[in-house]
Amino acid sequence: MSKTFLQNPEALFQMLNRRSVSRLQEPAPCEDVLNKILSAALRSPDHMHLRPWRFLKISGNDRFHLGNLFVEHEKNRNRDAKQELLEHAKKKALRAPLIIVGISSYKEHPNVPRIEQSVSTGGVLNNIGLATYFSGFATIWRTGTYAYSDVVKNGLGVSQNEDIIGFLYIGTPTTSDIKPLKVPLEGYVAPWPN
Fold it and tell me: Nearest Cα to 78, choosing from 145, 170, 169, 10?
């Protein structure tokens, strides 16, 4: 039998209005709020309780070091990279006051393939985004070539048995005029069998 009422309509309302925000500024969540966000996010589904993840918090001047890794990546890709491209790469690490790097740290298990472990890490990263939004802040999840770059991975201490799942930029929106995107169910959800 189905329930005909929402037990927590506010949470659902919040999720329906969440969207990625690319322009972020100070402040980011304080340490106490961030710890609550991270604790809630770790409730993501995790087959066999492997906890195949780890997360790096990058803020303050450490963002400049991340920007330098982005620059090194661009130089590695193109030895003739223009200064304008290198400056743009460096600034990408400064697009938010806080960046959480989600890393899948794979565990060997006969019943849990790597793809499930990556999805689980992505679930935590998504939960961080939702919990951050519920806490009054905003995020945008980015990957791009930096997530797959050996230069960036080595610089961040990501081992051969790990993958970067995403960079979650966190901060306060620069504008309050942010409208959620409407995503229709049609075309994405269907009964089975048809």
Answer: 145
